[in-house]
Amino acid sequence: MVGPAAKRDAVAHLKAFMGLSERRACQIISADRKMIRYRSCRPPEVELRMKQRDLANQRRRFGYRRLFIVLRREGERSGVNRIYRLYREEGLSVRKRKARRRAAGTRAPILVEAKANARWSLDFVHDQFACGRRFRILNVVDDVTRECLAAIPDTSISGRRVARELTTLIERRGKPGMIVSDNGTELSSNAILAWSKDHKVEWNYIAPGKPMQNGYVESFNGRMRDELLNESLFFRLDHARSAIAEWADDYNNFRPHSSLGYQTPAIMPGSSPQPAPTLRNVEASRFHRLLPPRHLAYQKPPRL
User: Fold this and answer.
1) Shortest CA distance to 177 belongs to which of 205, 151, 147, 143?
2) CATH number, domain 120-267, options 3.30.1120.10, 3.30.420.10, 3.40.50.300, 1.10.8.60
3) How far is residue 214's CA from residue 236's CA, in Å, rounded to a whole number?
4) How far apart are CA 276 and CA 249, in angstroms?
5) Phi/psi at 90 (nearest 5 deg)?
6) Which residues partner with 140 through β-bridges?
7) Chain-centre distance of CA 104, in angstroms?
8) Which residues of the chain fall short of a pLDDT of 50?
9) Residues 11 and 30: beta-carbon distance below 8 Å
10) φ and ψ of 154, to 5 deg
11) If residue 136 lies in a helix (H) or strand (E), which one and from where to where?
């Protein structure tokens, strides 16, 4: 019972069901009578509240900043401060997951040219079906444009399979300047070493036990886990393929990225407009894909 609206409801309840006076009810809950009697002059904003609630239900892991960008794309002209106020009043705040403790000190980033295909990152994500059988997803991310180049789920992905998928990806996208990955069994196999030598692609391995050195794809894995895998229950492999392809297409063409100024990877120079490849073609995404205007500005809301 922190907000004024909750305190007004509490005073009304005490007066109606316990027969207390307004003065006594305000004393019990430590509320100012002026605040209880105040009536807002603002319009009810019912339509905007409903639109924001519906969007928050559809995008359960979006905070108010991304909701603001999406509402702007749909033609809503309200400022970020109003969106933030309604976001708090409607109780739409996203529950933050407990962050891991970061190591002290500074880290020197790997310098790459700021263009597409300068560096790709690879990693695996693991999940399981409703029956308990496990599967894995091979994720390939462009570190500069933040584009998801591939999200390939299967029950087993060998080093030879990774090499074949990279060959197909290079034919569609072009050869990268370098590739970064961990030193897992599949990514350090003889098939991968031979592939990188044949295609003359520099392959860098991060230090063992240091996933922060491959931060771009690790961040992508976290978004996939938070927005898709934790929110979905997969029954079959084709079901997982369809859902992951749909989410990857939405990630590239619709989802606002804070690291890109709340733009999408699809509008970055050198990005490919095609959806991220999977093992089979799927139906078009059910999400509405509307690219954001370049002139959108973000204004930080006031501190509470």
Assistant:
1) 143
2) 3.30.420.10
3) 30
4) 6
5) -85, -5
6) 122, 150
7) 26
8) 102-108, 275-304
9) no
10) -170, 165
11) strand 134-142
Please report which residue ranges of 174-212 form alpha helices under DSSP H: 190-198
The one-letter amino acid code at 189 reads S
Reported as a single tens digit per residue, the pLDDT across 203-233 is: 999 988 888 889 999 999 999 999 999 999 9
Q: Parallel, antiparallel, or unpaired: how do β-strands 148-154 and 178-181 relate?
A: unpaired
Domain boundaries defined on the chain = 1-41, 49-94, 120-267
Tell me the Ramachandran region of residue 11: left when phi exceeds 0, alpha when psi lies from -120 to 50, beta otherwise: alpha
Q: Rounded distance, CA 264 to CA 290, Å?
A: 10
Report phi then psi at 64, rounded to 5: -70, -30
Q: How far apart are the first and last CA of the chain?
A: 16
Q: What is the pTM of this model?
A: 0.70
Tokens of 266: 């699809």
pLDDT the model gives residue 284: 35
Q: 69, 52, 53, 57: which is closest to 258 by C-alpha?
A: 69
DSSP letters of 4-53?
HHHHHHHHHHHHHHS---HHHHHHHHT--HHHHH----S---HHHHHHHH
